[in-house]
């Protein structure tokens, strides 16, 4: 092979001679002497697939370039375990340079992710170049002879291509990771995991991982490829299952893919004990079959199940599948090795990652539209329910108003109808008392008096019931009320009814509240009246009115030192006609405390009591 003055770059594939050493035991001396064992290579890029043999390649170079004696020999397939160079000059001296990914990266003659050697070619002197290849990966030799200046230009273009590809992966990784952290959507999480693992797989495949990440770990540099490939396939399958909703759309395929994920998860722990060659072939074939199946699932879900988000997914996976297919066919020596087949994975993966991001964005748009539609439907349903409930409330209010009107009419009718016979009974009993008092013995006079007392009691109960009904119906007219002044006013009126009564009254000054003054007067009249009534049996009665702050609320209280009551019966205290004392001992209608409770509840407050028999009682109430 003659290198002329215009030679800058030369593909050596079809200029090589090839020999297979199936035993792997031949030395360089034996190979150099075995001219008959070599045969011409007819491939632009020699590719023998996965092979356990040792392969020898040779070419004779004659440098006729007058000014270029330093050349670079590059093998752009960096996954060869052992790639040794032997140079035999015209004087018969042999130079040996070991290489390959099985050696630490620092031992390389040329610092580059690809396998490279410097070739010193003296002008007009032939040099025999021998290459020995032994590897567990595919035997490929995309071999190029470069002028250093030309190589630097080409390498810069390749590095820019790699920078764009890995920059795209990194951008998609970071962008979707932020979306995952924001949305907490599992699909984004598995997509991020897939992009990360697939990016590291590509980084290892291109030799960049060995150069930058683990240069002193050749063994891991070999295992990293099936490791990251298997994990990226697991993430890919999980993402696809979720994104395409296969559990609902294709349950049997979903079960099959779950089982496939389980098998792939066995690959990382088995890496130290299994041979690289069958493992990488198995994982590569598995990935190809899985990708085809996923792509078919995407087409089915898009066309048959009408899942709109599957459209971009199908386009993305078709691009990746095409890239994987081209690369796999090149690996198995079905297609020749060239730029497209060598970088098919990067090209397909770049398009796939970009389109999958569009697919996720489109899915998010669909979910947002569905969410808005659900909100609109829910709002319409809520409006309908509110309208229905409003109608029901209106009807209930009308019924309540009608019922209240009927109750009011009934109350007045009952009042009128009961008062008439009561007045008759009271009137005739009074006539009998006046006209026949002298003819009635004391016992009959006592019976007549009981009749008159009963009619008077009945009249008072009717008045109390009407007052209770009035309190429930009356409109609240709220405003500031001086409760201290009101309590003092009520006590003065009550004490005027019994001027002989000796009782100590204490009203705390400056107590105010917000409420209906007329109704609050009723409250104080009932509570203070009860305090005076139940403390009448004490030699020195005491009645107090005051207020205190409890948990941010003002609590008003009326206290006495009278008869008190048993707290076991406190639950009956505020019921209508409920009495805890004998009416012969303490008179009353049994309506007063019920009226107090209704008034306080209408003000948004609470009322309760505490007492001890023969010690006294204290009634508490709050206002809103």
Keywords:
alpha+beta; 624 residues; five-stranded mixed β-sheet
Helicity level, as a percent range? 40-55%
Number of helices: 16
Output mean pLDDT. 85
Number of strands: 20
Describe this structure in words.
By secondary structure, the chain is of the alpha+beta class. 54% of the residues lie in helices and 18% in strands. It is built from 16 helices and 20 strands. It has helices spanning 28-33, 148-183, 186-205, 208-212, 218-243, 246-249, 251-264, 267-270, 276-303, 310-331, 339-342, 344-436, 442-473, 483-496, 517-534, 592-602; strands at 2-3, 9-11, 17-21, 39-40, 47-50, 54-63, 70-75, 82-88, 94-97, 115-120, 126-134, 138-140, 143-146, 478-482, 503-507, 512-516, 541-550, 553-560, 607-612, 616-621. Strands 1, 3, 4, 6, 8, 9 and 11 form a seven-stranded mixed β-sheet that branches. It has a five-stranded mixed β-sheet with strand order 15-17-18-20-19. Strand 8 (82-88) and strand 9 (94-97) form a beta hairpin. Helix 2 runs antiparallel to helix 3. It is rod-shaped and about 170 Å long. The model has no long low-confidence stretch (mean pLDDT 85).
